[in-house]
Write a structure and sequence with these properties.
The structure is a homodimer. Chain A is of the alpha/beta class. The first copy, chain A, folds into three domains: 174 residues, Rossmann fold, CATH 3.40.50; 143 residues, Rossmann fold (3-Layer(aba) Sandwich), CATH 3.40.50.1220; 176 residues, Rossmann fold. The first copy, chain A, has 23 helices and 21 strands. In chain A, helix 3 packs parallel to helix 4. The radius of gyration of chain A is 25 Å and the shape is globular. The C terminus of chain A is likely disordered.
C-alpha cells in the first residue's frame, strides 16, 4: 500500500495508542499538521508554547502508555527540550516529531531562519541525542525503517525518541508494510532460567525478605506481577519516594514509603534490615533516598530492571523484568498469605481531623489532612514540585489513584501542562491538581488549552507568596525568592472568554469546606486559590530542604566553626538566612498523622 | 584582594556594564543569587520562567551592549536554551551563569534531581557548546582565569557564553587580580595595512560602489564608522532586512532596505548593479534576501566581518572591521558629499494617510500608516515575528530609534520578555512593542515582571485570531493555526494586583485615535488590543510567506502538473489551502507608501 511518509508515521503512532499530538505549528511542520488534521485516528492539540506541549505529552504518556508531540525546527524543539529531558530522566515515552527545513535546504546548507544561520543542521539532533533513546532524520530512502526502529525503542525503553521530518518529505509516497510494529523484546532462555533460579533461591531462604519499588514498576506496567510475587511468599514491599502510588497503598503487604532516614521507623527497619531486598527498577537518587540517607545492605540487594538483573556481582543481560517477575511465583515455595505484623502496617489514614474552626487561617497541615478525605478512589492526582509534592507525599492514596509528579527532573511548572495531557488521556476520571503560585506562573497559559477543550479538573493553587521550596533551602527572606502576585482567581476568565470555570479564593478552614462542597458539585473546571503562609510547609519537605542546603552548600553548616572575625561577606550568610522560627517537622511517610 | 568566586564573577560582569541579572532561582544557584542580592553594582531580576529570562537578557544586551542571566542546573538552563540559541544566531552577547550541583556531587557522579539521574554532568555543557562561543565549569583552581577567558569571548564576539558555577564554589575565596579585564583584540599590522589598501583601491576605482549592512553593524557599534566611510566617498548604502534600523534611515545616502527580489526597484538595482559592494557583517540568510532572491555579482563583493575580511578569493584573518573601517576614509580620495539622485532616495515617509473614518474597522495597512507618525525619534521599538515585523519593516524609522526584532531565530513570543530587558536597559526612553496574539500567548506572563518593576511601555497587541503568519504560509483555515482567544485587555489586571496599567481594546480607526491620544498622555504602562482580520497582513509578509511555502513544500507548486486522478490524500492539499482571496501585495521596502 502506498502512503505518504507523514501518514505512515501518524498511522504507526495511532497503532501504538497515541490519540493526541501535542505541539505548536511552525512553517516546517505545517504539512505534517495538515496530515494530522485529516487523520481520523488522532488529533493535534495546539499548546501555547513548546515547553508546555512537552509537559502535556509527558502527562498523557504517563496515563496512556505513550504519547507524541510535534514542533518546528530549532526554535520550536529547543523550547521543548527541557520537558523532553524531564521525560527522559523520569522514563516517560514521548515521540518528538520535529518538522525540519526541506531536504534540499539541509543538503545545500542553506542559511535559514529557525537555525543558527550557519548551515549546520546537525546540532539540534546532537542536543536531543542526550535526552532521547533513539533519533533519526527521516529521508525518502529510510523513512519506513527509521520510523519503525525509533518508535520501537520508545515503546520498549519507555523513554523519549526524536524524529526529524523534513517539510518536503512528509508528503512523499512510500510503500507501507502490511504488518504491525514488532514490539517484542523477549529474554534469552538460558539467562532467564538462571536468573529466576538464582533469585528464587535467594528469596526462598531469606528470613526477612522485602521488595523495594521505584517508578519503573508503573512505567513498565509491572504492578500486578509485583503484587502476585509479594502475595506468593507474603513478602512485604515499600515504595520509594519517587514511586508513590505505583501499587495500591492499601495493600496488606504495603510497608509505606521508603525514603532513607526520614522514613517511618518500621518501614525503615523492614527495608534496611531485609536479608534479601528485591529492588525493582530502583535508582538511588537523592529524591528517592532522603538525600542519600538510605542504609541498605549491599549483600542483600537484588536488582531487577526492565532489561537486566543483577545479584551481587553476577549480572544477567537479556532478561526482562516482566518475564522474571512472571516466572518467580511458581518457582517459590508458597507461603500462606498473611497480613503484616501490626507494627509494620503503614498507617491507614490520617487520624480523624479536628473539627473545622470557622475563620481559622488555612495551614498546610490541616489542608493536607483534609485532602486525605477529599481524594477518592480512581482519581488522577497531580502534584507540582514544592509544598504540593511535600503534602501529597504524606497522604495514603486510595485504591487505583494515579499519582503523577516529577520528583527527579523536578521542574516547577510541570504539572499544569501535564494536566492537559492527563485529562485528554483519561477524560472520564476526576482529576486534581495541586500547584504552587511560583510553579503556576511558569506555565500558566496552558490553563487556556484545558479550558478550550472543555476539560474539568479541580485545581488547587497554593498561593504562598513565592518560591517556598527555595525559601526553605536558602534565602527565606531574600527578594529573589519573591514573585509578583497575580489575581489568581481570575485566571480562568482571563485565559478563556467562554466562562467555563468556577473560581474561588480561600483563606480559612470554613471557606475551604464551602469550596470543596461547591467543587464536588460543579460541572465545570474548578480553580481554588488557597492563601497560605509563605513559610508554612509540610514537615517532611522542610526536613528535606535542610538536607538539600547542607548538600548544596556545605559551607553553611561549617561556617560556625570558623573564627567569625575572618569571615568575608559570603560567610556571613547563614545567620541571616535561618528561618525565623523552627518549623515543626513531621515523619516523611506520614506527615499527616 | 580576597573575594569569593561569586563576588568576583559579579564584579567582572559589572565592570562590563551588566546592571541586571535575569533569571529564576533554583537550589543550585541560591548562594550566587544571595551574592547578587548583596551587590550594589547589579541586581537580580526574577522572571516567571527561564525562557523568558533568556529573552529578557537578549533584549537588555541589544541596548546595553551585554547582559547576564542566572538559572539553575538542567531543568533551568534547558528551559532557557532556546532563547540563548536565538542570541547566538542573532549575535547578542549574553552571559549564562548556571548554578550546578556542588563539586563533590559532580565528582562523585551522584544521582541528583534536576539531572538525568545517571551521574552524567557533562551533557548540559555539551548542549550549550552548540549555542555559545565559550564555556567553562568554574572550579577553585581555575575560577579567575576561566571567568576572565569566557567573559572576554562574550564581549569580543557579541555572542552568548556559558559558565557553570557549582553551588559550593560560589562562596570559596580566591585572590582577585587588580587590573581590569583585557578586552582588546587588535589587528595584525601587516594584514590590516594590506586589507585596507586592497579595499581602498577597489573603492577608489569603482564607478558605482555601494555598501550593504547587516545586523553586526549594530552589534559591534560600527554605525558611525560606516557613515563616515560612506560620506567620505558619497557611497550609498542599504540595510538588509535583518538589519533594519542599524543606521539612521533618514540619512541622505540611505538607499532603504534591501531584501532581494522584493526590494524597491531603485534600491535593488543600486545594490545588485554595484561594481564594488562592501558587505559589512553580511549573512545571506533566507530572511535577509527575500528567500534567496538576491542577485549580487560575486566579483563585486567585498566582505568585512568583525574579525576578518575577504576580497574575492583573498582572505585576511587578523583584521577587525572596526580598524578597517576607521582606516578607510583617510585612504580614499575625498569625493564631495552630495545627496543621492532622487530616484535612489528611499521614500521619506508614507504618503499622507487618508483621514480617519469613524467606525471603519482597523486594517493592517492603515494601522501601520498611522504608526509611521506615532513613532518618535529615540523611541525603542520592538516587533515580534509575524505581522508585527511585517508591518514595522515597511516603516521609515525616525532618527535614533532602536529597532529590535529577531529575524533569524524568529521565535514568536520573543519580544514581550525582550521588552522587559530593553526597558531596564533604557528606562528613560519611550518603548513600543508590537506583538500578535499567538506570540503573546507564548510568553505572556512576563508582562507581570514588567508591571512589577513599574515600567511603562506602550504595548500594541494585534489580536487577529491565531497564527496569521502560519496561515499565510499554509493552512489558512486549518484548526492547528487557531488559538483560544483570551481577554487580552485584562492581562495587566490579571498579571499584577497593583493596577499599574491603562488597557484599551480597539476595533476601528477612530477608537485607535482615541487610544493613541490616551497612550501619549498616560503615566503608566499602556496595553492596546487591536482587533484585526485574521487574514489581513502587510503585503510584503504575504509575499514572503508564499515564497516560504514554495521553499518548504515544493510539492505545493508542482502538484498541479500531476494527473489528479493519481493523487493520494496528501496531494489534495494545495487546492483547499489557498487563501480565499488574493490579498494585495506591497513592495517590501515600502508597504506603507
Amino acid at each position: 500500500m502506498k502512503l505518504s511518509v507523514g501518514d505512515y508515521l501518524l498511522g504507526r503512532l495511532a497503532e501504538l495508542g497515541v490519540r493526541h499530538l501535542f505541539g505548536v505549528p511552525g512553517d516546517y511542520n505545517l504539512w505534517f499538521l495538515e496530515q494530522a488534521e485529516r487523520s481520523d485516528r488522532l488529533s493535534f492539540v495546539g499548546c501555547c508554547n513548546e515547553l508546555n506541549a512537552a509537559y502535556a505529552a509527558d502527562g498523557a504518556a504517563r496515563l496512556a502508555g505513550i504519547s507524541a508531540m510535534a514542533t518546528t525546527y530549532g526554535v520550536g524543539e529547543l523550547g521543548a527540550i527541557g520537558g523532553v529531558a524531564g521525560a527522559y530522566a523520569e522514563h516517560v515515552p514521548v515521540v518528538c516529531v520535529v518538522g525540519t527545513p526541506p531536504l534540499h535546504a539541509v543538503e545545500g546548507r542553506a542559511l535559514l531562519h529557525h537555525t543558527l544561520a550557519d548551515g549546520d543542521f546537525s546540532n539540534m539532533l546532537a542536543c536531543y541525542r542526550a535526552f532521547t533513546v533513539a533519533q533519526a532524520r527521516i529521508e525518502p530512502a529510510n523513512a519506513r525503517q527509521e520510523i519503525d526502529r525509533v518508535l520501537r525503542q520508545c515503546w520498549l525503553h519507555k523513554r523519549p525518541v526524536y524524529l526529524q521530518l523534513p517539510s518536503d518529505v512528509a508528503a512523499l509516497m512510500i510503500e507501507a508494510p502490511a504488518g504491525p510494529l514488532d514490539l517484542e523484546a523477549g529474554s534469552d532462555p538460558d539467562q532467564i532460567r538462571l536468573a529466576v533460579a538464582r533469585i528464587a533461591a535467594r528469596l526462598a531462604k531469606a528470613r526477612a525478605p522485602a521488595i523495594l519499588l521505584d517508578a519503573d514498576v508503573g512505567r513498565f506496567g509491572l504492578g500486578e506481577l509485583v503484587l502476585k510475587l509479594a502475595e506468593a511468599r507474603a513478602i512485604p514491599f515499600a515504595t520509594l519516594t519517587t514511586a508513590k502510588g505505583v501499587v495500591d497503598e492499601g495493600h496488606e503487604l504495603h510497608l509505606g514509603t521508603y525514603g532513607g532516614a526520614g522514613s517511618r521507623p518500621a518501614t525503615r527497619s523492614a527495608i534496611e534490615e531485609a536479608d534479601c531486598l528485591l529492588c525493582i527498577g530502583v535508582r538511588f537518587t537523592d529524591m528517592a533516598t532522603g538525600l542519600f540517607t538510605h542504609q541498605l545492605r549491599p549483600e542483600a540487594q537484588i536488582h531487577l530492571r526492565a532489561f537486566d538483573a543483577a545479584i551481587g556481582m553476577e549480572h544477567f543481560a537479556g532478561v526482562t523484568a516482566r518475564e522474571v517477575l512472571a516466572a518467580l511465583p511458581p518457582a517459590l515455595p508458597v507461603r500462606s498469605r498473611r497480613p503484616l505484623p501490626a507494627s509494620l502496617v503503614a498507617p491507614l489514614a490520617a487520624r480523624e481531623p479536628a473539627p473545622v474552626e470557622p475563620g481559622r487561617p488555612l495551614s498546610q497541615l490541616r489542608f493536607w489532612q483534609r485532602m486525605q478525605d477529599f481524594i477518592r478512589p480512581r482519581d488522577v492526582v497531580l502534584a507540582d514540585n514544592g509544598t504540593s509534592t511535600g503534602g501529597t507525599m504524606g497522604l495514603r492514596l486510595p485504591a487505583q489513584v494515579s499519582f503523577i509528579m516529577q520528583p527527579i527532573w523536578a521542574a516547577i511548572g510541570y504539572a499544569l501542562p501535564a494536566l492537559l495531557g492527563t485529562l485528554l488521556a483519561a477524560p472520564k476520571r476526576r482529576q486534581l491538581l495541586f500547584i504552587g503560585d511560583g510553579a503556576f506562573q511558569m506555565t500558566a497559559q496552558e490553563l487556556s488549552t484545558i479550558l478550550r477543550h472543555g476539560l474539568k479538573p479541580i485545581i488547587f493553587l497554593i498561593n504562598n507568596d513565592g518560591y517556598t521550596i527555595e525559601r526553605l533551602i536558602y534565602g527565606a527572606n531574600s527578594s529573589y525568592n519573591d514573585i509578583n502576585p497575580w489575581r489568581y482567581a481570575q485566571a480562568a476568565s482571563f485565559f478563556d472568554t467562554q466562562d467555563r470555570a468556577l473560581s474561588l479564593s480561600v483563606q480559612s478552614e470554613d471557606e475551604l469546606e464551602r469550596a470543596l462542597a461547591l467543587a464536588s458539585e460543579a460541572s465545570s473546571l474548578v480553580l481554588i486559590e488557597l492563601v497560605m503562609d509563605r513559610m508554612d510547609a509540610p514537615g517532611a519537605l522542610t526536613q528535606l530542604a535542610r538536607k538539600a542546603a547542607e548538600f548544596d552548600f556545605p559551607q553553611l553548616t561549617r561556617t560556625a566553626e570558623l573564627d567569625t572575625t575572618k569571615a568575608g561577606p559570603a560567610r556571613d550568610l547563614p545567620a541571616k538566612d535561618l528561618p525565623a522560627k523552627d518549623l515543626p517537622t513531621k515523619d516523611l511517610a506520614d506527615p499527616v498523622g
